[in-house]
Amino acid sequence: MNGIFKNFSIKNLELKNRIVMAPMCMNMAKAGYANKWHETHYETRAIGGVGLIILEATSVSPEGRITKDDLGIWSDEHISGLKNIVDKVHKAGGKIGIQLAHAGRKAVLNNEKLYAPSAIAFNKDYQTPDELTILEIDRITNDFILGAKRAYAAGFDMIEIHGAHGYLINQFISPLSNKRNDAYGGNLIKRTKFLNDLLIGIKKVWPNEKPIFLRISGEEYNLKGNTQEELAQIVNQIKNIGIDVVDVSSGGVVPSTINTFPGYQLAIGSKIKKLTSLPVIVGGLITELSMANEIIENQRGDLIYLGRELLRNPYWVLQASRDLDIKSLWPKAYERSK
Q1: Cβ(86)–Cβ(39) under 8 Å?
Q2: Which residues does residue 21 pair with via DSSP β-bridges, in sequence order?
Q3: 202-221 pLDDT, tens digit each
Q4: Which of 279, 299, 325, 328 lies most in the core, judged by the most C-beta atoms within 10 Å?
């Protein structure tokens, strides 16, 4: 049993294990620029043996940041800082991707106009956004395309489109937040148009040999929201354009109470895998090696994301390799501690 240490390949991306560092906002950037802190943070997880690192939500538009201290990729000037992270991760033997994002109505920014499919605030503590015009939708679509182009220039191994957690793409595809009556709202096909259009554009600037991941909230925790079957249908509508892997999380589009426990999102991920026939990344408070191995061995997911556990312990994968007596993973400089 190799469990999480089985190789995984998709297009030209070859991973030495099945552990993915989930994108987690670090709130350490200024004006969107990556800095030495980010370099150290991500390089450490590569030294620690993580198979694939996905950079935190990186905004394609200034107003699309979740907070003012998020990373950005809306300017060519952001490329060099991001490339420094990529180069350090590659030198440490890791693979790295970037999550392209726009927060929409869930941005928390001072003196910035917020945009969303419909002029509905997330809750009473959030600013009410302006409803996007067609021209503004076109602009943000182009922002995603240019973000992908810059990600390629920075050398990332893959990109992930952030369609989860109630951010802009999720706001378009969910009937809870999209009340439009035009080509971008109404039935499921129309609500998927924004995601469909930006993916078509991204495919023109992102090389076919490099994979594209899509993160979704596979459960909206609201009876009036998308069902798991409808979310799988959305993925099936666009997968032939160029989605290679689905990263399955849950919640965030509207306020809700979520019963969390180790592996609480696994059943959702397994269902999306079955209904779409695509590889999936699954996770949700997974901390134990035995649980991670079971998921892979029983084919309940193809990759496993760890979030907070890798903040607590950047060497989780190395320790797991020691427990399983995997001989070749440890960096030479660390072998004496194995």
Answers
A1: no
A2: 53, 306
A3: 999 999 999 999 999 999 99
A4: 279
Written as six digits, the tokens of 94 are 């890791």
66-82: pLDDT as tens digits = 999 999 999 999 999 99
Tell me the H-state helices in 27-179: 36-47, 79-91, 134-154, 168-173
Query: Hunting for tokens 């439009």 — which residue is that?
Result: 180
**Residue whose entry in the numeric block shows the structure tokens 């798991």:** 228
Residue at token pair 């790295």 = 96
Question: Which band of pLDDT confidence, cut at 50, 70 and 90, is reported for residue 328?
Answer: confident
Tokens of 182: 């035009």
**pLDDT value at position 1?**
57
8 Å CB contact between 137 and 116: no
The domain total for the chain is 1
* Prediction pTM value: 0.97
| Residues of the domain holding 261 | 3-337
Asked if 151 and 132 count as a contact pair (C-beta separation under 8 A), the reply is: no
pLDDT greater than 60 at residue 127? yes
The crossing angle, in degrees rounded to 10, of helices 193-205 and 228-242 is 30
Distance CA 72, CA 259 (A): 32
Tell me the pLDDT band of 335, cut-offs 50, 70 and 90.
confident
Which residues lie below 8 Å from residue 78, measured CB to CB, with a gap of 6+? 32, 33, 34, 71, 72, 150
28 residue type, one letter: M
Q: Which residues, at least 6 apart from 143, have a Cβ–Cβ distance to it below 8 Å?
A: 60, 61, 64, 74, 102
Spatial separation of the C-alpha atoms in residues 62 and 139, rounded to whole Å: 12
Cα distance between residue 24 and residue 101, in whole Å: 12
Q: Domain of 199: which CATH number?
A: 3.20.20.70
Q: Phi/psi at 82 (nearest 5 deg)?
A: -70, -40
